[in-house]
Amino acid sequence: SEFTYKNLLDLNDSRKAYQSPLAVICHIDLNAFFAQCEQLRLGLSEQDPVVCVQWNTLIAVSYAARDYGITRMDRLEQAKQKCPNLIPAHTAVFKKGEPFWKYVDHMPSPATHKVSLDPYRREGKKVLNIFRSECDLVEKASVDESFMDLGRLVFRRILTLFPNILEGMTSKSDTLKPIDHLPQGIDFKGYIIAKKDDAENESAIADEDSSFLVEDWDDLVILVGSMICYELRKKVEEQLGYKTSGGVGKVKTIAKLASGFKKPDQQTIVRNDSVPGFLKYFRLTDFWSMGGKTGSYVKETLGEDISISSIRDQYSSPTELAQALDKNYDLASKIFLMIRGEYALPLEERELLKSMAANKNFRQSIYKKADLIPWINVFIGELILRIQDLDDEYNTISRPTKMTLSVLGSSGTRHSKQCTL
């Protein structure tokens, strides 16, 4: 084996696991989450073409609705033309003057209502609680996606599958014994991305009968991680009804790309040696954190059409890449590691929020205090409800110490007032 007992034992330490060459990270994403929430709330099936609506805009499109060619770029009227039996479900709303949200049985108006996303936050929290009940290190990436360091779970599963694995170890620096057999109980779950030695079909998926599926311990821990990822996804589906997609890899960036590779209700497994073949299906700007201004700068500097494999082949060190990126050594080092599947970052459980905002864009200017006060009641009600949800999530009592009222006028001038509570 190329790996040592220390590499394996580090999986059992949440502080070290992500740096081990045997690290196992998974990313789970809820498919068309807001639309799924509305589908389940209304008692509809997966085959019903549901869209989640905010005024006249689509903010989530179910996969059944996507079969009609509907996208989030469509307005509601356009979507109905594509699918006459479309089921639009509007988000919950606050009514002017009321400090609580509710669902209404008519299409609300932005003149008298304010959108509430609290129902989706609450459902997302239920999913997160399932992950946290099973895994000791979970990073909430957004309301509908999470990263998990599966190190401890994989380590315990390996000890179950190979109960004698630590026998004969005299030093942590000793190399692990070769894998001479795969015990019963291993059932790999998901699409396994091919290595160069695997039989590969046109969609990059390895032949599951290939003898190259498990060549060393890095292959095995990733594939065991796929079993755990699948179990977590199925637990969410069984308890809450939500379908998810998953990705398993050594680092967060690869796991996130993998979770979006096959959707919906699928998962993708990327072993270390299959990273180059997997990344040929992506551009550098597809990487999490490489969009926006950073991605635009890299494309302008290295070339609009340059591929990940070209960057990997042309620049053999971070220093060489930095010369091409105006001596931006930090960015060059990040990209150099990222395109090799080696950009290892620790998972971070989110800290308690330090600030919270409630806002609304008014279609028409407000000139009278009597028109503004009812909306302030809405804002205060929304913030109180969110603080209560935060208390439940973190099992604590959080109370604001300051409050700021900010108004952006039609001229673009902002006026703010702050007070201590």
UniProtKB/TrEMBL annotation:
GO biological process, one term: error-free translesion synthesis
Sequence ranges assigned to domain UmuC in this UniProt record: 25-291
InterPro entries with a match to the protein in the record: DNA/RNA_pol_sf, DNA_pol_Y-fam_lit_finger_sf, DNA_polymerase_eta, Rev_trsase/Diguanyl_cyclase, UmuC
Keyword line: DNA damage, DNA repair, Metal-binding, Nucleus, Transferase, Zinc, Zinc-finger
Compartment(s): Nucleus
SUPFAM superfamilies associated with the record: DNA/RNA polymerases, Lesion bypass DNA polymerase (Y-family), little finger domain
GO CC terms, sorted: mitochondrion; nucleus; replication fork; site of double-strand break
Source organism superkingdom: Eukaryota
Pfam families: IMS (PF00817)
One term of GO molecular function: zinc ion binding
PROSITE patterns for the chain: UMUC
PANTHER family documented for this protein: DNA POLYMERASE ETA
Stated name of the protein: UmuC domain-containing protein
